[in-house]
Write a structure and sequence with these properties.
Elements (H helix, E strand, L loop, with lengths): L3 E7 L7 E2 L7 H14 E2 L13 H19 L12 E9 L5 E7 L3 H11 L8 E3 L2 E3 L1 E13 L8
């Protein structure tokens, strides 16, 4: 195992927030469908973000900060020390109709690392689900995670 420390960076947690919908037939249907969905969607409300209810932009930013902080605290960075280069994992999450976070997809899907992502995501606290017309809906989220592995500095080199 190389002597390195892995640092974890979570970028723009909710930059890819969109409603989990059925496939559509054409590009124009997709654009119109997403525009309508974004206007009608009441975003999920993560704990501590309730004060932003009614402002989807602030709800999204608040959830992003809090979920990123949670993952940074809970993930076992030592598992990623085997990586010798900068590696990006794209994790697709779903907040289901009950407000439970679930992993839909991990790319690249490397079982050793995927298990750690699953372990951490399953620990996220239940949230208030997203809604359209006051009905709970599944909401799909994109979570890019960058692992930077850098050689450790030798602390014994002081004279």
């Amino acid at each position: 195992m190389p002597n390195s420390t892995a640092t974890l960076t979570i970028f723009s947690f909710l930059c890819c927030l969109f409603l989990f919908t059925n496939p559509v037939q054409s590009q124009s249907d997709w654009i119109n469908s997403n525009q309508k969905i974004n206007e009608e969607l009441d975003y999920p409300i993560y704990r501590g973000c309730r004060k932003h209810k009614g402002n989807n932009k602030k709800l999204r930013a608040c959830m992003s900060r809090k979920v990123s902080r949670f993952i940074n605290k809970k993930i076992n960075r030592n598992l990623f020390s085997v990586l010798e280069t900068r590696t990006q994992f794209n994790v697709t999450l779903i907040i289901d109709k009950n407000g439970v976070f679930k992993i839909s997809e991990i790319s690249p899907d490397i079982p050793f690392f995927s298990e750690e992502f699953i372990r951490v995501i399953e620990k996220l606290p239940k949230t208030k689900p997203g809604k359209i017309e006051n009905q709970p809906v599944n909401v799909k989220l994109g979570l890019p995670i960058i692992i930077n592995s850098a050689p450790s500095k030798n602390t014994n080199s002081r004279k």
